[in-house]
Amino acid sequence: MPESNGQSQSRLGDLPPDLAPRRTVLAAERTYLAWLRTSLGTFGLALAVGRLLPALVDASETAFALLGLGYGAFGMLILGLTTYRSQKVRAALRADAPLPEHGWMPWMLSLVAAVLGACTMLFVLVNV
Questions:
Q1: pLDDT of the chain along its 128 residues, tens only?
Q2: Alpha helices per DSSP H over the chain
Q3: Calpha distance 120→11 (Å, rounded)
């Protein structure tokens, strides 16, 4: 409701402190859902590369299929690792414990993405 000076009373800083844990849980859930959307997008990319592109480009279907399988496996890796992390984070939040450190996960996902990117670039160079 507006105050007499026209400002809104429901500013973020005015929220009761007992809402902070709820906001933290919701933020963790939003992060997991973002990773879920990323894995679903990767599955779509796998389908496009593995099945749709061979029909459009005169190149080896086997190479497209292998690249598509790589992107599909990457989507599964994203889904598995982020579901694992999400469950650990939720358990820590419920127990009011420190959040787990999984500093290796972004490095692993980045490494796999870099390898897939390099394979894609090599594939483009070979089939130009």
A1: 445 555 544 565 666 767 777 888 888 899 999 999 999 999 999 999 998 888 887 777 888 899 999 999 999 999 999 999 999 999 998 888 888 888 899 999 999 999 999 998 988 888 76
A2: 20-47, 53-56, 61-94, 104-126
A3: 48
**What are the residues whose beta carbons fall under 8 Å from the beta carbon of 82, sequence distance 6 or more?**
32, 35, 36, 39, 105
Cβ neighbours, 10 Å, residue 19: 11
Question: Per-domain residue ranges for the chain?
Answer: 19-126
Helix runs in 57-103, H state only: 61-94
Residue whose entry in the numeric block shows the structure tokens 């939003």: 30
